[in-house]
Design goal:
The protein is an alpha/beta fold. The chain has a single domain, classed as Rossmann fold (3-Layer(aba) Sandwich), CATH 3.40.50. It contains seven helices and four strands, in the order E-H-E-H-E-H-E-H-H-H-H. The protein has a four-stranded parallel sheet with strand order 2-1-3-4, with helices on both faces. The radius of gyration is 17 Å and the shape is globular. The N and C termini lie far apart (42 Å).
């Protein structure tokens, strides 16, 4: 079961961890969060991240989730990447985290792919009807039935 570490701008990392605890009716094991404050010293955060990673990593590795690519939390997270052992994904959101927790027993490459898919598929415009939502998310399927999505 891969460990998961979230490194994000404060208070996003701990808020995502708390949301996961709500979704799973208790905090999932091997899940850590580091909130990076505006005055944080990057070398100190990196040292904390390495300590957290050591406590969550498993046989199939660890997934590090971060918020904005190119920002301080992501730059710190990028320094943790190790091919085949630690994968780093940017753009973390709750759907990505839930998917990562759900599939954490998969091999690390598969886990990263599923987490990325969960994150991107979780971002969509919600329509006023179920059919509208389904058409927006699966246009080819519903076009075959003669239904069309108008924006």
């Amino acid at each position: 079961m891969a460990g998961i570490l979230i490194i994000a701008h404060a208070p996003l990392a701990s808020a995502l961890r708390d949301c996961a605890a709500h979704v799973y009716c208790g905090e999932p094991k091997r899940l850590e969060a580091i909130d990076v404050t505006p005055d944080a010293e990057p070398t100190a955060v990196l040292a904390e991240a390495r300590r957290c990673l050591a406590s969550v990593i498993e046989d199939n590795g660890a997934l590090v989730l971060t918020d904005i690519f190119g920002a301080t939390p992501a730059n710190i997270a990028a320094r943790l990447a190790e091919p085949g052992r630690i994968k780093v994904l940017a753009g973390v959101n709750l759907p990505m985290l839930v998917r990562a927790i759900c599939y954490r027993s998969e091999k690390l490459d598969q886990l990263a792919t599923k987490a990325l898919a969960g994150g991107s598929q979780g971002v969509l415009q919600i329509g006023s009807t179920t059919v509208q939502n389904q058409i927006a998310n699966h246009p080819d399927k519903y076009a075959a039935e003669g239904r069309h999505h108008h924006q």
